[in-house]
Design a protein that fits this description.
- This protein is of the alpha+beta class and 361 residues long.
- The chain contains eight helices and 16 strands.
- The two termini are 40 Å apart.
- 38% of the residues are buried.
């Protein structure tokens, strides 16, 4: 039996009509994902023909929560899905509402590879066997490791996770320098997108707790990360000592709650951090004190501290930020700039997250 896999994509062209009718792409051709794989045009043609294009559309890859039977066809962009959501069941109504309101904005497929070929170190899927298409809440398309963990928790199906890469101290310094340059002026659309991508990629490291115990931070878990769809990091003082707060945005809600605390071990003794955590009914784990080093990327070495990530997203953003910084010319006229929701205070928060990540190296 072939191994089943997952891949997720952001819904950038979803059409939502009355009576639950939706049209979207659950896979895009020619896009490299965090697994370093690409779906080639035509890879779905046989499986679509074999099933007359009809495959289940389900919620979060859970086979016990089908919400439609979708007509799947290949077009120039990818795998196009047209379906009428079942509004007679609660999940169908909830997904329909989420699509209309925008907090469900990702799609994913479950599939098995039939034939593949490697080109320039990228694996290309030539033919795949499709199992189903799924709709997902926000951010899972940019964090496929979190998607796999969530689906595993919901269904028990052991889908493979993305490969581990590494981010070095040099990468983090480069990103911080580039972001500081952006703080002093308005952002173009492209720059705003890069900052958003950087912030999203950082969520992979801030919230998941697979790397515990952290080498330089004591950890206090207040709630399970699986309850949340988005994460942000902030700081607070207790008796003159600063500690970090991981805020989580509840799934299917606009509410944010405290998910975890982090205490820098050079500021907090383990006993003090444990007492503070206990006073908030948290689950405590002391820092390991061991340096996290990796040679997962070809440009790292034992002398170059790095942190393992389940996605290449942050590396890609780092390179684009560095290129943008190097190519930045004189100040642009006002017509080439625009005010965006991503302004200096938000960039400062991203820089804070990067520094916190560096503290784990």
């Amino acid at each position: 039996m072939r191994l089943r896999q997952l891949r997720a994509f952001r819904l950038d062209d979803v059409q939502v009509a009355d009576a639950g009718h939706v049209v979207f792409h659950s896979s895009i051709f020619g896009v490299k994902d965090s697994y370093e794989t690409i779906f080639d045009r035509g890879c779905f043609s046989k499986t679509v023909n074999d099933h007359s294009g009809m495959f289940p559309v389900v919620w979060f890859h859970n086979p016990t929560e089908p919400i439609a039977l979708g007509n799947h066809v290949e077009d120039a962009k990818g795998l196009r899905v047209e379906a009428d959501l079942d509004l007679e069941v609660e999940t169908g109504r909830r997904v329909y509402s989420g699509l209309r309101k925008g907090y469900i904005d990702c799609a994913s497929i479950a599939f098995s590879c039939v034939t593949e070929a490697r080109e320039d170190d990228i694996m290309h899927f030539r033919e795949v066997e499709l199992w189903e298409s799924s709709l997902l809440t926000r951010n899972f398309a940019s964090n496929e490791a979190a998607l796999v963990d969530e689906v595993r928790a919901r269904t028990g199906i052991d889908y493979p996770r993305p490969p581990v890469v590494a981010v070095t101290e040099s990468d983090l310094r480069s990103m911080i320098e580039a972001l500081r340059g952006l703080q002093r002026r308005e952002l173009t659309d492209a720059e705003a997108t890069l900052v958003t991508q950087c912030s999203t990629a950082l969520q992979t490291m801030i919230a998941p707790e697979e790397g515990r115990p952290y080498p330089n931070e004591h950890a206090c878990r207040l709630q399970a990360p699986s309850k949340f769809s988005d994460f942000r990091r902030g700081t607070r003082k207790h008796e003159g000592k600063v500690y970090s707060i991981i805020f989580g945005k509840l799934k299917d809600s606009d509410d944010w709650e405290e998910q975890a605390y982090r205490y820098a071990k050079d500021v907090w003794e383990a006993a003090d951090a444990r007492a503070h955590c206990k006073s908030h009914d948290g689950s405590f784990e002391a820092a390991s004190g061991e340096a996290a080093r990796s040679c997962a990327l070809g440009n790292t070495s034992p002398e170059s501290p790095s942190i393992a990530l389940p996605s290449t997203a942050l590396i890609a953003v780092q390179r684009e930020l560095a290129a943008a910084r190097a190519s930045r010319g004189p100040a642009r006229p006002p017509s080439e700039t625009r005010r965006t929701p991503i302004i200096a205070p938000d960039i400062h928060a991203v820089i804070t997250d990067l520094r916190a990540l560096g503290g784990r190296l």
